[in-house]
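ugh finaly. both done.
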Amino acid sequence: MNSFEEVTQWLFTQLPVFQQQGASAYKPGLDKMRAFAKILGEPHTKFPSIHVAGTNGKGSTSHMIAAVMQEKGYTVGLYTSPHLVRFSERIRINGVEVEEGFVIDFVRQHQAYFVAEQLSFFEITVGMAFAYFASQKVDYAIIEVGLGGRLDATNIITPLISVITNIGLDHTEFLGTSLEEIATEKAGIIKNGVAVVIGKKQLETEKVFRSIAKEREAPIYFAEDYSMPQLDLDLLGSYQEENKLTAYVALQQLMGNQLEGDSLRGFSKVVQLTGLRGRWESIGSKPVVIADVTHNKEGFIQAIPQLMGMKKAGLHIVLGFVQGKVIEEIFALLPTSASYYLCSPAISRAIPVNKISVIAKDSGLTYFTYSSVKEAVNAAKVAAEVEDVIYVGGSTFVVAEILS
């Protein structure tokens, strides 16, 4: 393997990738990750980190924290998943994607170990990120949890602070079927004596977080109990206000008096500084086209009111989903006044469009079905008038296809 494309294709095709395969690729537990980290020389111990978990908003919150710290002048590593267009989006330093040469060399050097130990794709990328951040001597690294928390491969770190944005009924096949059960899994990132910030105070989960934090003697802060100054934010989704407060409180606990006006300008430059995409991103005008990775009930509860509040003549919604989502609950929230363009992203975990259409029909929606995301988006553009709005979402992978 001599090229970046060959190496990343090998990673995608030879190793289990949860985003593509689902349950069969999910390998919970930390033993393999700890052993891999030992082989790598324990790189995760060589930089200070911030650990971010949650059902919704953990990616946006991670990018906000990174942007503010970059604006402060620090060299900041950022590990997130999944990527939208390029594999290297997962690992960035000050917004710059990991060097292709590093990825090639890393995979070549450890390829035999990956295969012999049957590491998951996610375990490999976590190890790669830790090794890269250590080699580049970052001042801080923001590490986003992949799935859950307690058994997630990222959970070998002992961060300066932990952040849990919110809890919703997502990935119930792995994390539990109640908010309390899911909160317990995500609270697994709370470390002994390490402060934790909880983004959303929820009746069902507050007692879980308080109990585990007390047991581990970890100071606990609920973001909703705090106020913040007026801060401009370049991320346009109204749901980002909750994430902004969570990021601010985490930064305040971490940086104290050093969190002054100059560094707070980072909130207004998140996209510029970190390269974040796909969060209520405007990708067209006349008609307005919005790409948004919202993909579960809790996300749509926040996104739909903003969408309905936009000035528009008509509304066109392009949707596709992947397995593991209770899409009946999502469709119960959708406006019947819109026109729907249903599709399936081009991955094996996609929910077939004929199954989505049955739910759309039962929900009384006006819909059309298409064999690809591209066809669905093109059809919406043809049907839309210049004063209309087109919203594209339902899955990270739907958005990824139109951005690529």
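ok and the 2nd:
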Amino acid sequence: MKFDIPDNKKLVFETLIPIRWGDMDAMGHVNNTTYFRYLETVRIDWLRAIGGMPNPLGEGPVIINAFCNFYKQLEYPGDVLVKMYASDAARTTFETWATMEVADQPDLIYAAGGATTIWVDFPKQKAIELPPWMRSIVG
């Protein structure tokens, strides 16, 4: 099943990730699981940059689903430009999307993925409303 990335989204962050030799599999291309690591890296770097890291004694984001569409094979050596977008803020959730390009081939999408994030009160283990500051970023 392929998931489409919506046209209506807001660029919130981008980062450059070097492709490591160990990211490759026996076929000589970046292993599919590594794309999810790239998605995780951009998401964590973004959350850190905006002060949105989870607080186990308080509240924060939890990923409730994630996907990745693979279009072209990433290969070593190179750098992946990962652009992260946000959209669809709801009461307790928002969507994030990311595209992966090779830095020296801008605008050629190698893979794209996304995740649904829910805001949680960790001690209560319960979803809560998005804080206004986060809603203003992802809304």
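summary for the 2nd one i guess: Residues 23 and 30 are 5 Å apart (CA to CA).
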